[in-house]
């Protein structure tokens, strides 16, 4: 398997990586009437909760098994059981999802066994509430892996094979690189072809900004348990993001529903592939407004490409989002100076960059010198302050701007908006040379016709 | 050893909560037993880091898997006027192999890398649950590293699972007492030297107070820990007076410094006009008691007169508009009473305050101020708050960022009074800023709009 | 009638106003297979053309009667006739629209008479091509007036009364304050209720970025002549913008189709009124995605209002767009420090601002001192450079950024995007105080609790 | 009077186009009769303003209705290293009442307001069609205002309807000759003083040339008009040599200055390596002819050697990639040949050039360079260009912003070589920048993507 070069430091400095259980919680938050829980110290939950609250600007339901030192050494099942019982009694969720943490994984926690035990001991709960127990140790993988593992566990635990097929229904496995806004746009595109979509997880209806009538300690909105159970009746699964491959395979194994994988939905040709697939599966013509959106994107590429050619851009994001941004930048003629991911992934193999690295924000800062633009999460604000480079915030977490959940970069329209956003940054910085810029400067040689320009 | 330290903290005689307990209760410790599936709040590691990280020129290295630092760095609003190194997140990011084989060597290597790259005056090394479980001896590694590298390398032994955030605060205090305070001598001392303990300089709000101390002629020997410098904290034992800002968090530092170095301390608040004045007065009086010239008191009183007059004048226009507006205060500790007094000074009515994280003494203060009838909620569940807000029992809620959506989703104004806010509320200028923020939020016309149902409903 | 205070200088400095014929051309550009023409010197056309090319980043069909000095003195009919004949022969447009200029209006040009004469002399043209002749003198009114007068002339000249009614069809008179992107969003909302819309003019299908198969010297896309002719069969006219009142009245007079006027579509309550009207006229429930959009906007207002309260914003735009922005800012708790329009309009009456003025960019610059944000067209870049204030570009012309035509601020979604855009500027500038900000400064008194805060 | 001036311009003996005409043709004037309904291009006012507005410290006041300035200000890329006043749009914004009653008083008031507010060294006042029609006597008002205000107030009598942009350029030249040049004496003169005429410093590109002149020791007495200063233009008559950049636009200035002040001139270009070198050589040679020390020539040759070597070295990597790429040049005037030579130097193939705005001499030059077979299009209709591009006859089009969409909609690369571009192409650095821009655009991967049909088609 492809492995990207990995930073070899003992000290990770300004981490880019977030933990697996956080990704697990994110996946569970896209299920309606669900309560996610971390099997660990209450601090594990508190950190994850705060981070998600800051990013989504939403109340986040997330519980903890509240392990202390003694319980950890004795083994965590008792706390796990107590937590599930309490959550069930207090909040009556339809789904309870429990992700392990580093703490419980160090001793080793057999979540399959725990689930079986719990079911036996508490059928009054497990008959009325779906339970998803997942192993997501903090010390392997990262957010994307936790998300993928949890989606797989949801499929394994909840989906049932179906005898019949609903001809206009498709499944969407929406990876963690998609915002609620992206998911909304994707559903919109799918519905334009007369299809209905079961989206797992569906953050667009749970984290887009619901206005509940009353206080609720579980998720409000998202795909329902019933919809998940019925995914076997769909005609096709659209797996969005390389990390949705495993869940898609699990779903296919279990139900026989075939899948198409879309490694990205950003960019003209990427969007073309997706729209073509929808046209094919639905047998419907492409709607007029989508055709217009395609024209507008082509137009935007023509109008905007001037400002992209050979611009140097550094990107640090979770693997699938990284691949999407780098791919788009490449499409537009930029040079990706640095592509940094927090974890290994097959998605990295397709990235073309001067430097491709699994590393942290410190590595990223070093590699970003001389770039025209930096694209990363909000943590990069510290390094761009030092670099003096503009920052476009993308991915998780984006805690110092409004609307992180509503950022849309997928499809023709999302791509066009992204193109204008980045293009305008380049344009604004290209603009208006002053007399002192034009001093006869031998260093200009590096700028024009330097080794990279000629590459 | 950690067990001993935890017990020592539980016995803290300076802690008002402890004093109210029986011997047996005290043994059990401060931390309430958590209910799995119905708990909230940070862990001891979180508390330790909150207390120490504002020491801005030190490196803060978290020894643990990615969750501990990766999910939490860069999330607090403590400001520094000098080094920004404290904002850099350092962690050993333990892998599965590290968990299997132990990570002491990796930890040493990480410390060495940091010292070579950043040359900080000291490195704080935070133990967390996973390496504690596998038996990594952080204290030994730190000692070894300190010897090898010729720098203070300070173990902070407060893994998350030993208890609450509050316990972590205290363990951080013990760390400073054991490893930092008293390890250096100041170049000069003056009769006006004080330490400020337990102020984290959130939103840079201490900079609203410092100019007044400058004007008084008071010198801050060390800040523990907001806007703090490691080497200044190391000289803290030479101060004449300690001011303790948050009554519970770092009480052990103040008390033990009194014990060890004979430095008297008082608890004060920077919130609200009269509390602010009391604080300045206390500083002046205690310094004079410890030998400072008496004209300090005259000078201080003049400053107080001028500042109070200015503050009341600036508060006047708001008072009228805010008269009778009802505030629900959902915070803890010193803010549970200091904010009450500050807000009532501006004409607001406080319908109640949460006292979950408040000490017995805090609660006594509230009772004295407000009488027995006043609402003090020990445990206020989100659903209860939501109900109160929907029933229009309050016009505005003041709390921390995590609970904001209880108010906002109920379409009730809310103001951040905790660590994520971007406005400083300390000092005379701060109280005006606080009241202005409340006025701005209450006066915002969105409330009518967002409360209206969609016209098709 | 309400009159806003008017700047009383002899020298207009850094003009905000643009000319009537330019507005006329803009209206004509939203008609399919149309060729607009200015009756004046070729320079009149050249300036207008360049300005529109720079804004829309599109080829703009716009001709000239190419008047010279002698012809002007002798009277312009001959050139007008020659121009129409040439345009017809060369380009075979379905619609030719001619707007007068200052040059031809100084002598006085009877466009009604000219049209009658032309029809009589050239039935071979006027039988095959709709002719719209409009008086749009440069020396009265401005862009918005020229746009409104031309839409009225199109209605007068082209719409025919209808015997029958198409029950699910509505007319939209889309004012000049709406971008092609706004119009696209509006159609999308209307179609969501199962309605079809005849949009006059429809810039979304002509200036959104078409990719023609072949070179075309007329407009490509826009409302068709046939659709315009049939506007009398619609059940309702939605007039968007105060300056669409007169055209709406003309349409009602001519066809009996009643109209509803929407002074703005930006803001929660403004969007509510529009959606309510669509629900009423269609008898359909509000679509789920529009309901979600409303929730998301409410959520955005709750999350974002912190950053808007008492922010000082200065706005200079054409009247209806000015009213829309000022209204939204007011909704969000901002103080509008200066509202400057280039021309008088009844739309100005509703604006609440510290200063409301009909004036130029120089007046605007003076009134913008101390503001947190400036909203205006690209010309304001000069003044914000001097003021050091961030500029949000809106309205016409926006020539130094990509995507001016695709800016969407209408409806729940457009409002939410605008809210995030402005909120993030405030947020970014509020952020991160440093120690030197906190010096004990008596001037702070003006900041907190000054006369305006207490107002 | 305006009629006389226009005729005088038509007779301009320095104008190569005129020299090729019969007496009768010459009487008809340069401007082709425009075809109503099929014309394009700017008016005389536009031309005059383009030529004069780059004089950056003057105020430029447009006397007319809003269309003339409101639709056109702030639309050109001339840059100034000093005052930015030229970027301010001034107009009398005539109203209907002004048209009925005449606007001479308003004009005077406007001039006065501008002088009081901005105190510029001079005000240029542009006449436009409407006030010309109603008989406003701009020349008289300017004279009156100049007397009253003690400043040069200069009438620019080129209303749009008298003719083309080109005519306007020349009328602007006459304005400078009649009202500005020779009205002041320079503080010092040197044997190295030159004027640069007809360079507008678009995208600040003259700043790519100036350092070379500085190195030669050449002093620019005045820039006419890019980056120009009014008071320097007024002293232009004391220069030793005039360089004329754009062959047609301001030829009358160069020729009449030769006639009046005996200043020799040459036409040169800053585009392309060899033309740039020729220009430096010409400046040096002419200055030496006029008495400058001869070592100027040696110095110049050394600079040329060094710069050429550097330029060719920098162009080398592009040459290979660009070899055989076909360029359609759709511009006019001096660029119709100077760009050809510049681009061929970089290995590009020019398939043809438009010569609509080029002089007879320009065309001769092209013939000499390229032979008779070479495409020179007098009238190239947009539809023709579109066809050529769709038929892949060119790999890239170079033109001005207005025609860009002919290329872009045909999915063919395009580069702005006119006034709206943001990259300077002048001098040795400029040609490298130009070639880099072409290479960047040709190499951009969007072309394959945008040319593919939608997959459902």
TrEMBL record, chains A, C:
Belongs to the NifD/NifK/NifE/NifN family. Pfam families: Oxidored_nitro (PF00148). Residues 436-455 are annotated as: Disordered. This is Nitrogenase molybdenum-cofactor biosynthesis protein NifN. It comes from Skermanella stibiiresistens SB22. Gene3D superfamilies: 6.10.250.1090, Nitrogenase molybdenum iron protein domain. Residues 436-449 have a biased composition (Basic and acidic residues). This protein may play a role in the biosynthesis of the prosthetic group of nitrogenase (FeMo cofactor). It comes from the Bacteria. Residues 19-425 form the Nitrogenase/oxidoreductase component domain. GO terms for biological process: nitrogen fixation; protein-containing complex assembly. GO terms for molecular function: oxidoreductase activity. Pathway: Cofactor biosynthesis; Fe-Mo cofactor biosynthesis. Coiled coil: none annotated. InterPro entries: ChlB/BchB/BchZ, Nase/OxRdtase_comp1, Nase_Mo-Fe_CF.
From TrEMBL, chains B, D:
One of its GO terms (biological process) is protein-containing complex assembly. Pfam families: Oxidored_nitro (PF00148). SUPFAM superfamilies: Helical backbone' metal receptor. The keyword Cell cycle does not apply. Keywords: Nitrogen fixation. The keyword Lipid metabolism does not apply. Residues 43-442 form the Nitrogenase/oxidoreductase component domain. Pathway: Cofactor biosynthesis; Fe-Mo cofactor biosynthesis. PANTHER family: NITROGENASE IRON-MOLYBDENUM COFACTOR BIOSYNTHESIS PROTEIN NIFE. NCBIfam families: nifE. Belongs to the NifD/NifK/NifE/NifN family. This protein may play a role in the biosynthesis of the prosthetic group of nitrogenase (FeMo cofactor). This is Nitrogenase iron-molybdenum cofactor biosynthesis protein NifE. It comes from Skermanella stibiiresistens SB22.
